[in-house]
Design goal:
Layout: E1 2-4, E2 9-12, H1 15-26, H2 29-32, E3 34-39, H3 46-59, E4 65-66, E5 77-80, E6 83-85, E7 88-93, H4 100-111, E8 124-131, E9 134-142, H5 149-163, H6 176-183, H7 186-205, E10 221-230, H8 231-244, H9 248-264, E11 268-273, H10 281-284, E12 294-299, H11 305-321, H12 327-341, E13 349-353, E14 383-392, E15 396-402, E16 407-413, H13 420-439, H14 447-451, E17 463-465, E18 468-470, H15 472-482, E19 488-492, E20 551-556, H16 564-574, E21 586-590, H17 600-604, E22 608-612
Parallel strand pairs: 7-8, 13-15, 20-21
Antiparallel strand pairs: 1-6, 2-5, 3-9, 4-5, 8-9, 10-14, 10-16, 11-12, 15-16, 17-18, 19-20, 21-22
């Protein structure tokens, strides 16, 4: 299909485009492309359906945008065409399957598996599903370089308006080229730099991974979809909002963060909130990819739900204001910061509330969340349904489709951490928390009883170090493997300073290993590592671990030449996909392991060959 009538323009890519293009060039297409299904209003002719799509292409520069670049390089420029063509594949059936919406959904999802050629492809891959010549659904995959969930929702809303014969006002939001110019201004550059500082503070002090616990592993997790539709949840959410004077979206975010942090036994909920950067009026209805994470860090160490709710809006707004950044500079900072901290940043938790956007896209089951028939007040009190699997680089991903008249959300949780009954209990627990908060303030210490969701039990060989949960035996075993079997002993030094309520995640500086260490009366179960006295049962959600502050690694090298920097580099290379690992603050290299290799005091009596942080110049 040909289109013409737009204006030809060119200029630099936006920060959001650069971010998503980076992902598109790196990730598998089915993981990064997005999709949607648009039900066609009954009685609409095929010609009208296609003409409305043509009108969208002329109206929005993003749909006429390509990204010229040479092979092996990332695009730095975008070109808006004045005219061009796109393809609509018509699939006309005598009769559709019993689940026509599910069939349309499968077509859209399948279309995601092919890469978009950034330098030449129209950014929508469209199929028109028809029954005996009558169009029923538009199924599409979309390039994430120019669209996100919000953009697809806006396109669907406008497409329906065009089909209804309405005259659309001129677009009022920034075009991608206009946004790129604003980002390149002095004010835009200052905003980007402030965003990097916000991210660095959280990455330096917050939990390295929300789900650092036994069973967590890998960077790509195949997870099934679980969908909640609940009239009870919507009613309770509205009552909490009325009782507290808060927005429903903030109430839901607060409840969700509280429950995630409770289940993970963390002092803070650190989550990516992608749709938040449409909070500015000039971006609300922008057809563009604005998918840059806002990084939320909500400290949950407060006594009650209402107290947490008061903190949540400020924390969320702070995250929203810092969601515009140079992606290359961000990842350079993350690499530098995590090397210094001795961790790997894990984007474990994602919360995407698309219910607040001007229009919402279909759920992953093909259900149209914007269709009033899909959310009748007479809908289920609480209904859970399982959908298809997806491979995701997260451990908990939640999409909120609607909050009224039904609470309708879909979540994907790592099956290694949540069995099916536990995943269902988590969403049921969210509704129970909202119902409890609808009538009264809820003490956060009572979350297990209120929701039925229990904190993870990590066991006695885990401790909180530098604001993160880790297992010293696991660190010792992994470091030994990275050093080709050299004997390694890892111990935790002084107790963490932030346990009494500090919010900056700071810990006492790790001194030389000759300082005091906990009594080594452990069971020595790790192959090449050991831990201090394992008296903590690991079950208390807010109990103070008996040790943690900084790790020290003792390494017996024999005749193998090794520096602390080499040891640290070897361990850092082994960290991806292992959220329970945190690098030692100090590496102490000795000649031979002591006879009592499971006792810290024995290692302390060995002659030290070399010691240092591994991050800078070693002490020899």
């Amino acid at each position: 299909m040909a289109y013409a009538g737009g204006e030809e323009r060119r200029g630099p890519v936006t920060m959001g485009q650069a971010n998503m293009i980076r992902c598109m060039l790196r990730d598998e297409p089915e993981h990064i492309n997005i999709h949607d299904v648009w039900p066609v209003p009954e009685g609409t002719r095929t010609e009208a359906t296609v003409e409305a799509l043509r009108a969208l292409a002329i109206r929005h520069e993003a749909l006429r945008t390509t990204f010229p670049h040479t092979v092996g390089s990332a695009p730095r420029e975008q070109v808006v065409a004045a005219e061009g063509t796109f393809t609509v594949t018509v699939l006309d059936h005598e009769d559709l399957p019993d689940d026509p919406a599910g069939y349309a959904e499968s077509l859209a999802r399948g279309a995601r598996s092919e890469r978009f050629h950034l330098d030449r492809d129209f950014p929508l891959r469209i199929s028109l599903v028809a029954r005996s010549g009558a169009p029923a659904f538009v199924s599409m995959a979309a390039s994430h370089a120019v669209t996100d969930v919000g953009a697809l929702g806006i396109l669907k809303e406008e497409w329906r308006s065009i089909l209804a014969g309405e005259t659309l006002p001129p677009p009022a939001s920034l075009t991608p080229l206009d946004l790129a110019a604003e980002e390149a201004s002095p004010a835009g550059l200052r905003k980007s730099e402030a965003s990097l500082r916000h991210w660095e503070r959280i990455i330096r002090t917050g939990p390295q991974a929300m789900f650092a616990e036994p069973g967590a592993g890998g960077t790509e997790v195949r997870t099934p979809q679980l969908t909640l539709r609940s009239r009870r949840g919507a009613r309770a959410l509205a009552l909490v909002a009325a009782r507290t004077g808060s927005m429903p979206s903030t109430v839901l975010l607060t409840a969700w963060c509280a429950l995630v942090a409770h289940r993970a036994d963390q002092h803070a909920c650190v989550a990516a909130v992608p749709t938040s950067n449409r909070y500015h009026p000039r971006l609300t209805r922008s057809v563009n990819t604005l998918s840059q994470d806002a990084l939320l860090s909500l400290d949950v160490r407060v006594p009650t739900f209402d107290a947490l709710l008061k903190k949540a809006w400020g924390a969320a707004l702070n995250a929203y204001r810092h969601s515009q950044f140079d992606a290359a500079a961000l990842w350079e900072m993350i690499g530098r910061t995590t090397h210094e901290r001795g961790s790997r940043f894990a984007r474990d938790v994602v919360f995407n509330d698309v219910s607040t956007l001007p229009a919402t896209v279909t759920s992953a089951t093909g259900e149209d969340a914007a269709d009033p028939k899909a959310a009748e007040p007479t809908g289920p009190g609480l209904e859970l349904s399982w959908g298809p699997d997806q491979v995701l680089p997260t451990r908990v991903l939640t999409f909120v489709h609607a909050t009224d008249p039904l609470l309708h959300l879909s979540t994907w949780v790592d099956p290694a951490l949540f069995k099916r009954d536990e995943a269902e209990a988590f969403l049921t627990g969210l509704v129970r928390l909202l119902e409890a908060a609808a009538t009264d303030d809820v003490p956060l210490a009572s979350l297990t009883g209120v929701t039925g969701v229990r904190p993870v039990e990590r066991g006695p060989l885990w401790c909180r170090v530098d604001g993160s949960w880790t297992s010293p035996p696991l660190v010792a075993r992994t470091l030994s493997e990275a050093l080709e079997g050299l004997p390694v002993h890892v111990t935790a030094d002084a107790p963490e300073a932030a346990e009494d309520g500090a919010t900056d995640g700071s810990t006492p500086d790790a001194t030389a290993p000759h300082g005091s260490t906990p009594d080594a009366t452990h069971d020595g179960t790790a192959p090449h590592g050991s831990t201090p006295d394992a008296t903590h049962d690991g079950t208390a959600p807010h109990g103070t671990p008996p040790w943690g502050g900084a790790l020290t690694a003792f390494i017996a090298v024999g005749d193998t030449p090794l520096t602390p920097a080499q040891a640290h580099t070897a361990l850092m290379d082994a960290l991806p996909g292992r959220p329970g690992l945190l690098a030692p603050r100090r590496y102490v290299i000795v000649q031979n392991p002591p006879a009592e290799a499971d006792r810290t005091s024995a290692w302390l009596r060995q002659q030290i060959l070399r010691e240092g942080t591994g991050r800078d110049r070693d002490v020899t």
